[in-house]
Prior knowledge:
Blueprint: E1 2-6, H1 11-27, E2 32-38, H2 42-46, E3 51-57, H3 59-62, H4 69-82, E4 86-92, H5 97-105, E5 107-117, H6 129-133, E6 136-138, H7 146-158, H8 178-183, E7 195-199, H9 211-224, E8 227-230, H10 235-247, E9 251-253, H11 259-266, E10 271-275, H12 278-285, E11 289-294, H13 299-302, E12 310-314, H14 321-332
Parallel strand pairs: 1-2, 1-4, 2-3, 4-5, 5-6, 7-8, 7-10, 8-9, 10-11, 11-12
Helix pairs in contact: 1-7, 1-12, 9-14
Amino acid sequence: xxxxxxxxxxxxxxxxxxxxxxxxxxxxxxxxxxxxxxxxxxxxxxxxxxxxxxxxxxxxxxxxxxxxxxxxxxxxxxxxxxxxxxxxxxxxxxxxxxxxxxxxxxxxxxxxxxxxxxxxxxxxxxxxxxxxxxxxxxxxxxxxxxxxxxxxxxxxxxxxxxxxxxxxxxxxxxxxxxxxxxxxxxxxxxxxxxxxxxxxxxxxxxxxxxxxxxxxxxxxxxxxxxxxxxxxxxxxxxxxxxxxxxxxxxxxxxxxxxxxxxxxxxxxxxxxxxxxxxxxxxxxxxxxxxxxxxxxxxxxxxxxxxxxxxxxxxxxxxxxxxxxxxxxxxxxxxxxxxxxxxxxx
Length: 345
């Protein structure tokens, strides 16, 4: 049986689709499963257990110069790679026009079918072409976690029973960290202090947590004996990381890392505290201790679903430091009575 998953972007969305892949593997151990994904997220899918072939698409770059000779040649190469196989099932887990186009271009084996969502679920994007292209459009409950949306679509389409437990199937780091060898900037703390990553950046300013909150929270982690890792993906995030590192006692500003190196780096940490972002969802997939910070009451559709060691904390306009701190103590199994803390800075 040959199966194609179409989930192109973004980082968090691709992560939320990974448990569906593991469900399919469990139901059909001999299946060949391929995945179409944006080039920037291919390293993540390549680490997913059970993926036979990752087919990279570069729509984000191609639409900047769609009619150029270079783009047309790249599009033809993508189509050739996509149509190399004939699939028994094509699963559009994105629900957008771009994913519908990819599903339509994919070749079916005799008796093969295309599956997609028949409706929009609360908080998700959805475009009608995904339903028009499908041989079978599956109606899903309106209020549904993003992970469960992909899992349920695949189970309904392929005809297996969905189990309660699930796995992301993400392989972590092994061997020396390439980021350190390439940049010369340490990623792993030079001391034996355990490391906690602070995911302070987000592409949306309304999802961010105030720097003063991060400073107070970081000081409490320092007092607990942790070194802090500060990743960044933009110039603005790097400036914020530099500010935090200058005012906190034990903090490392990581070099700018690609996704492959970021997976390795996060996997050296004992835990992650972060705003609602792709990197925070990556921490969930790596099964790290994790507190996810929400300024909006949307954790029900994207937040951690693990019990005990991964939780979300919501507050409006943003959670207080004490609320996030209590979340950290909860996931680490420690009470505030026997943990040294440092007050506001």
